[in-house]
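ARCHIVE CARD
Drawer: 12
Card no.: 0347
Subject: one protein chain, sequence and derived structure
Cross-reference: see card 0346
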Amino acid sequence: TLLILGFVGSLALDELLSVNVVIRHADRAATSGWATAESPTVLFRGNGELTDLGIDNAFAQGRDFKQRYVKTGFIDKRFLPSQVYVRSSSVSRCLMSAASFTNALFKETPKDHAVVPPIYTVHVDDDGLLVPLLTCTDGWEETISRYNLTSNVNVKDNSLRAMMMKEWPAACATVHPSLVDAIIAELPNKLINMPANYKACAEGAAKEFMYKYIELLAGAGASFNDLRIKRVAGVLTKTLIDNFNFASTCTGDACNGQPKFRVYYTHDVNVLAVSHIFGVLDQFNGITPAFSSALVFETRRNENGTYVK
């Protein structure tokens, strides 16, 4: 999924200054549980890990970006570290997605080896940029009240259990709520033959259910909470805006010394939070973000000035 955000109407024949990409990791197995008995064999890397389908899809997405930004000459096809910066959550499915995506971008070496940019990361417990902070005990007051929770500890998991009890969709009545992540994650995989009722649930109502939950975690949309959304996406939003401003104001060598193509690999909660902040949450149509969903910000300049698309 590629969303282009328009803040100012653009004109033809303008100059691309920089690109920032916020992207969810590619297809993974469910973080827990399996939809079928054959699932653990097909998804052999284990729960929460990137699948072969995810590797292929991330690579294909990288090829699409290559067409737009490398083959057009915006960034050098040989890969120059001064032009490209890739940052990822240290969760392995994000790191593997980033590697597969960037593996497709650049010209191979004379001996046909892929040129893969370095992927920067920090430990998951220290990553305020790309890992959602969901363990704090404050900022959940309306959630605690809505679901009659008895404590402000572990609200993330307790609210999901409460939602499963109170809001599990009738269209999924024959599917146990604990399978919601598994059936959504495994639905695209053609090597897994899920029962018809699982497929029907996963194709519609389950994705709407998970969207509401992810929206709650993000503090976005109908579950907007200023404190939670700042925790999830505040640092990333400031980083993006700083990048836009730098590209808009730098001149000469100062511009050449900073990457003009930046990629941030993250999680669905972060993608929803950033989408809310930049006013494009409605693009998801109430459905949980697909694997590899991307927000692309292009800083451009034309005769009217600089703008972000």
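Annotation on reverse: The beta strands are 2-4, 15-24, 84-88, 119-120, 261-266, 294-302, 305-308. The chain has eleven helices and seven strands.
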